[in-house]
């Protein structure tokens, strides 16, 4: 059983566990299944307060899917969470990425 199968089994047993959704999002991300990764990260973010890392993954999924406005909105939310949880370097990394996205896609 690989990691993805393991987390899918855990999801069947406990669909309301935010960390299972987070883990699935990361596994799907590794496989470049950005749609499924985004679905699980969205669920995780609805269930649990995140400090910023989840927003980075979700924004990258949106960027890869060509949903640039969603990527920008997600980065803006992630910056606020990173600041709230005292992660200034993460916030700065997301700010830089946000500016790059805005410049690349003329937003």
From TrEMBL:
<dbReference type="InterPro" id="IPR011990">
    <property type="entry name" value="TPR-like_helical_dom_sf"/>
</dbReference>
<dbReference type="Pfam" id="PF12895">
    <property type="entry name" value="ANAPC3"/>
</dbReference>
<dbReference type="InterPro" id="IPR019734">
    <property type="entry name" value="TPR_rpt"/>
</dbReference>
<protein>
    <submittedName>
        <fullName>Anaphase-promoting complex, cyclosome, subunit 3</fullName>
    </submittedName>
</protein>
């Amino acid at each position: 059983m690989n990691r993805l199968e393991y987390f899918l089994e855990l999801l069947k047993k406990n669909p309301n566990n935010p960390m299972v959704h987070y883990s699935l999002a990361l596994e799907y991300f590794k496989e470049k299944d950005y749609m499924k990764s985004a679905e699980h990260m969205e669920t995780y973010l609805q269930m649990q307060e995140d400090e910023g890392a989840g927003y980075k993954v979700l924004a990258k999924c949106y960027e890869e899917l060509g949903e640039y406005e969603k990527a920008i909105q997600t980065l803006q939310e992630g910056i606020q969470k990173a600041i709230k949880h005292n992660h200034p370097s993460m916030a700065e990394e997301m700010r830089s990425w946000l500016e790059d996205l805005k410049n690349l896609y003329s937003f």
